[in-house]
Amino acid sequence: MNNPRILSLLPAATEIICLLGFREHLVGVSHECDYPSSVGDLPVCTLAGIKSGSSRQIHDSLADLLRNALAVYSVKTDVLAELAPTHIVTQDQCDVCSVSRKDVEDAAARFLTTSPCIISLAPSKLADIYSDIQRVAECLGEARRAENVLTPLLVRQREVEARAHEAEKQPTVACLEWLDPLMASGNWVPEMVAMAGGRCIFGEVGVHSPWINWTEVVRADPEIILVKPCGFDLGRAVSETRLLTEKPGWQNLRAVKNKRVYVVDGHQYFNRPGPRIIDSLEILGEMLHPDLFDYGFRDKDWVVYPV
Fold first, then answer.
1. Which long-range contacts (CB under 8 A, 24 or more apart) does 49-54 make?
2. pTM greater than 0.90 (yes/no)
């Protein structure tokens, strides 16, 4: 298509679109799309129904919305109509990540005079993220662009895997995606931990992130704890880590004793299934095997806790 008008309703999708060279065709984004910085001046087409507050308050707000069958996010239909996109990119992966495909389809049918191509992303493994990049390129009529951007990503992935094989041991890692209540990381994260030379003790590859309890963490006594709350920047994630320090047995954990509790910007990395997922893999390398990896992310995008 020579002149697509693309609306991205997902931060990862916005990054994919820009990586593929379609930034000039983006006409609107979601309220959470913030990378690359050049998208900051685009019209925002979504609203969040979640109340701000502590981790528990955010969780309870989400639970209330879902319990009452209410949308967590909604489309600004007046903006949608004005933008008149030919392509809309959304997701099916998570009920609390962005506007659902059904809501997008309903809004498009009611408020647009034409029928846009709706591209819905639903990754559960690393290969799915690559496939999504390929599919977006194909839907926009430029399939060859995908190969150009995927090749360097795959090269970086293989470099991490190859170097991780040099490690003498694979430390056990507890990846925490939410802190109150506790949620471990699933989907592509356990796969990435293995690639970077570690053993993820909670969560399964390709399966949604599981709720866990603190007793399980104490019993597992991980060598490394990675705190990466979904949607929180580094400062907020560091602040939220205090919730863990108040739990019984915290000071006795191996990760705490050995100063191997790491906090990362979970909004920009790990929880955003776009091209910077390879940055996340490199960050894991730095955390798990600092003697083998140094990409310059430490103290900028992740820190040792306490800071």
1. 49/73, 49/74, 50/96, 54/180
2. yes
